[in-house]
Every structure is written in C-alpha cells, then in structure tokens.
C-alpha cells in the first residue's frame, strides 16, 4: 500500500515563502531601477525623445499604410477569384440545364448517368488540371432519386453550409468562403453555388475553388509590405537620430561652454564651423561671451576700486575725525559756559560726530566683508548673558521712547559655538530697530534651541512691513519711510552688516512683517560651528499674527507668512514650555 509523503514542516514553508518574497523584491527592484534609468534618460536626452517620437509616429503611420495595402491586395485577389468562378458557375449551370432538360422525372434511369457525365465534363473544363477545383451537383429536393456527384470524388457536405443551401434553394447564385479538408491538407475554399432548373424542379451546381494560391500571393505581398515598412521606419529613425545629433551637439557644446563661463572660466568659446544657422548661433554665443567677459571684468575693476576707495577714505578720515573729536569733546565739556545757542550747537556737533564715527566703523566693516577679509572667531558662548547685555545697553533708549522690552529666555544656559562680538552686534541692531519702530508697544525677545541650532527672534508691534519689504530691509541704506523721524540716528548699514555676520556663521537672518501688525526678525545659527542648518527652533511668523482668512482655528493659535527662503509658512504657533518671561522698561 502506497503512502503519501509527509506534509512540509512549517519552517520549510516559511523558508519558501521568504525566498519567494526576496525573489519578488529583487525582480521588482531591478524593474524599478530599469524604469527609473529609462525615465531619467527620457527627461535628460532631447535626442532620445526625438528619435523615440519619430519611431513611434512613423511605425503607426507605416503600419496603417501597410495594413491598408495588404487588405487591398487581398481584396483584389479575392474579387478576381470570385469573378472567375462566377463566370464558370454561370456557364456550367447553363450547360447542366441543357443536359438535364430532356428528363421529366427524377426517377428516370439515364438521369444519374447524365449528371455524372456533366460533372466530369465541367471538372475537365478546368484548364489547369491540378488546380484542385471540385465540381459537385446535388439535389436536395430529391435525395432518394438523385445522388450527389463530385469530380474529383470528395465529400463536400461539410463545406456547403445550410445558409448557402437555403440561398440556392431560393433560386439565387450565392457564395461563401469555407475552410475544410477535401484532400490531405486543410484548405480554404471559395464555394460558389447556382440553381440548375429542370422540367421536374431544380438541382444545385457547386464549384469549390481552393484559395491557396491567393493566400500565398497575399502573404508574400504582406511580407513585402511589412519588410518595406520596417526598413522605412529604421531609416526614418536613423535619419532622425542623425538630424537631431547635428542640432543637439552644438546645443550641448553651448551648454557646456555656458557652464564653464558661469564657473568663472571667461575665456571659453565655441568652435564656429560653416556659415549655417548653427554657425551663426556659435558666433553669436561667442560674441555674447566676449561682451559678458568685458563687462564682468569692468564691473570687477569698478567694484575693486569702489571697495578700495571706501576702505581708503574710511581709514584716511580716521585722522581728521580724531582731531575733530578731541576739539568737539573739549567744546562739549565747556558748553555750560557758552550761550544757549552755542551750547546747543556743541551738543548737536557731539551727536553727529558720534554718528559719523559709527558710520566710519560700519563702512570699514562692510569693506572687510566685500573684500572677503572678515574672519569668524567662534567659541562656546552662553547666549543668555549676550541678550541681557544688549538689553541693558539699549535700556536708556527704550525708556526714552516708552517701549518696554520683554524677554522670553530658557531657564538654563544656551551654549553655541559662535563669535560673541558679532552675535551681540546683530542683536543690538535688531533690538535697536525694534525699539525705534515699536510705537510705544512692547518688544519681545525670544531665545530657543534644539539639537542642531539656536534661534533668537525680536518682535515689535509697530507699523510693520509691506509685502516685499522683508527682503529690502537688508539692503544698504534702505529705509521703509525716509520721512520718518529717527530716534537713534542709525547709519543704514546695521541690518546689512547683521546679514553678513549671520552668513559668516553659516546661519540665517530673516524678516517677517505685516502692515499694522508689526515685524519680527529671526536669527538662526548652527549650534556647532561648521554645521549646516536645515530647520530653526523658532517660527519666523509670530503666534499673534492675524490670519488673512479670519483668525486662529482648531482651538489654537496659527500663524501665516513668508517662511525660510520666502516660502509661505502656516501652522501652529510655538509653545513656550520651560521658558520664563521678564519685562524691562
């Protein structure tokens, strides 16, 4: 007695399942890589796209024409065969009708012999004796009296359909194409039938003509058309590739030359061959590159002279400024002994000298940034005392203009590798501007930190910024409202220097503002020198910024405004867990 093999263990089934899953993942991964490379090639290569589109379009066009031509050839061959067989059937029916016209009853003894002789005669009338044509006479109305005769002998009942028999019985000449086996091979036949009238009724005459020769001719024609079409498609593809290469190569050369020019290699030029449109393109490109090189060199020389002039003037002004400063200090110290008008003039002179000295300092700093000589002196620094120093230094100005300063700082030290002098200068400019534009409303300073970055935001509730001014504020000597009276007499270079200080740290300095809602500046620096920033611990848009479509939703404050790089920022306002707030006025 046979026994069935034991079922596989669960472990073996699990191994097979894992192997199948790994195989499927490997195949799908390979297919995905191939599709990805093909998609990348399609997007990057104009030549591939043009050749592919040409091949697809020409294949569809040539395929359509080939189908029409092959169908037309087949139709012509079949119509020719139908016309020939119809003539033979007509003449054969007339001949058969004459032969059987002497018989008045189907039971007559000589009728069957006459039918046999008629069939043999009609079959012998074929000029090609090996054509395979079969002639048959049947009598469906008298099956017991008249037997079916064929020449050559064959069983044709399977090739004569009931529909054809019914059409012949109605007195019509009809035809159809049937496939069957009368010899050793299965062949397609054109079956034509015609009624033969007699004195006792009618009999049926059928011609079965094989269409093998027509099929071979049609197949040869189709093969010729297909081969011609394939050759034409390949030729069109090669022609498209050649033409596209002639056009794309100069464009590629121009692109590579443009890349070298953008990299600073201003002496790169294209080779001009011939006098056609591509040669005109190369010559125009070279002329453009020459003009750009000349203009860039001119601008570089002008920039260098400008930077040198600014630096030289700033240095040269130091000496007379020192002399004027000493004289002004002496006059300012003795101002109580002067007339009130002279004393006021001494105070104005002292204030403007302070501003002039600050302007010279800023110009020297800007010249160092422009010349690329600014150096970063990073060290681990606690930013909380830096913020306190800035607030203490500007406390007098804030008290004078009636703007309270609020601090939102962590209760623990915030350590980052920064240049404390530059960070303090940035904060001094930001807080000073916020106090200047605070409109007697509080200024909030917030400090935040995460694993990779530290951020400080300075928020005021003044007139705010119009759309687009959040980028203009960092331009040199730009002012939102030139007619507005200033309290601090700034130089107009503070935010420009602050932006350069932030970039020197590898950080961001961004601005947000809305009319009537004030403004907020955010300084984001990497916690470790040299790291690359990706996010900021604090939001650029303040939590109390009003939404343009109706205010906060979902039970919590939301903020909307330009995010990093000018993108739109919208989302929940940042929380202040683990922080404390101080108010100074």
Automatic annotation (TrEMBL):
Record carries keyword Amino-acid biosynthesis: no
GO molecular function, a single term: kinase activity
Highest taxon in the source lineage: Bacteria
Major location (coarse): membrane
PROSITE patterns the record matches: HAMP, HIS_KIN
Domain HAMP: 245-297
Catalytic activity: ATP + protein L-histidine = ADP + protein N-phospho-L-histidine
Record has Metal-binding as a keyword: no
Keyword annotations from UniProtKB, A to Z: ATP-binding, Cell membrane, Kinase, Membrane, Nucleotide-binding, Phosphoprotein, Transferase, Transmembrane, Transmembrane helix, Two-component regulatory system
Entry's transmembrane regions: 50-70, 223-243
EC number: 2.7.13.3
Compartmental location: Cell membrane
Domain Histidine kinase residues, every copy: 312-529
Protein name: Sensor histidine kinase MtrB
Biological source species: Micromonospora trifolii
Lineage: Bacteria, Bacillati, Actinomycetota, Actinomycetes, Micromonosporales
């Amino acid at each position: 007695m046979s026994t069935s093999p034991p079922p596989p263990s669960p472990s073996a089934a699990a191994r097979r399942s894992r192997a199948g899953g790994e195989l499927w993942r490997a195949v799908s991964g390979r297919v995905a890589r191939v599709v990805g490379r093909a998609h990348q090639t399609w997007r990057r290569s104009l030549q591939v796209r043009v050749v592919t589109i040409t091949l697809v379009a020409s294949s569809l066009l040539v395929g359509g024409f080939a189908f029409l031509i092959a169908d037309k050839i087949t139709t012509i061959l079949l119509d020719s065969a139908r016309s020939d067989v119809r003539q033979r059937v007509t003449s054969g029916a007339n001949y058969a009708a004459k032969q059987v016209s002497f018989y008045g009853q189907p039971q007559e003894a000589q009728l069957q012999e006459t039918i046999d002789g008629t069939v043999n005669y009609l079959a012998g009338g074929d000029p090609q004796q090996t054509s395979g044509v079969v002639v048959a006479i049947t009598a469906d109305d008298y099956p017991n009296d008249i037997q079916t005769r064929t020449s050559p002998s064959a069983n044709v009942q399977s090739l004569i359909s009931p529909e054809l028999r019914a059409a012949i019985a109605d007195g019509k000449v009809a035809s159809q194409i049937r496939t069957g086996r009368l010899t050793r091979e299965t062949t397609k036949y054109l079956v034509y039938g015609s009624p033969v009238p007699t004195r006792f009724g009618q009999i049926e005459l059928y011609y079965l003509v094989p269409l093998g020769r027509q099929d071979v001719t049609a197949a040869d024609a189709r093969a010729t058309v297909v081969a011609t079409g394939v050759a034409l498609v390949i030729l069109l593809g090669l022609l498209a590739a050649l033409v596209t290469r002639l056009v794309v190569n100069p464009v590629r050369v121009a692109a590579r030359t443009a890349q070298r020019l953008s990299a600073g290699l201003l002496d790169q030029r294209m080779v001009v061959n011939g006098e056609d449109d591509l040669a005109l393109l190369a010559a125009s490109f070279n002329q453009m590159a020459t003009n750009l090189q000349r203009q860039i060199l001119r601008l570089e020389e002008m920039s260098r002279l400008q930077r040198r002039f600014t630096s030289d003037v700033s240095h040269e002004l130091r000496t007379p400024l020192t002399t004027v400063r000493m004289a002004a200090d002496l006059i300012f110290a003795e101002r109580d002994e002067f007339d009130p008008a002279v004393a006021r003039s001494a105070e104005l002179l002292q204030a403007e000298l302070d501003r002039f000295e600050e302007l010279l300092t800023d110009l020297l700093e800007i010249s160092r940034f422009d010349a690329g000589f600014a150096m970063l002196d990073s060290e681990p620094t606690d930013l909380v005392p830096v913020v306190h120093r800035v607030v203490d230094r500007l406390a007098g100005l804030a008290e004078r203009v009636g703007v309270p300063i609020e601090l939102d700082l962590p209760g623990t030290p915030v350590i980052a590798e920064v240049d404390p002098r530059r960070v303090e200068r940035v904060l001094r400019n930001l807080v000073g501007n916020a106090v200047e534009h605070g409109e007697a409303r509080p200024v909030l300073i917030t400090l935040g930190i995460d694993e990779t970055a530290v951020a400080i935001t300075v928020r005021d509730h003044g007139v705010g910024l119009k759309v687009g001014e959040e980028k203009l504020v960092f331009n040199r000597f730009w002012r939102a409202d030139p007619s507005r009276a200033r309290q601090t007499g700034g130089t107009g270079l503070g935010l420009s220097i602050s932006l350069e200080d932030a970039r020197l740290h590898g950080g961001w300095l961004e601005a947000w503002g809305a009319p009537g809602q004030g403004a907020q500046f955010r300084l984001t620096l990497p916690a470790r020198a040299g790291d690359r920033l990706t996010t900021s611990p604090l939001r650029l848009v303040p939590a109390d910024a009003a939404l343009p479509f109706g205010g906060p939703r979902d039970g919590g404050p939301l903020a909307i405004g330009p995010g990093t790089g000018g993108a739109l920022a919208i989302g929940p306002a940042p929380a202040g867990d683990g922080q404390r707030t101080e108010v100074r006025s």
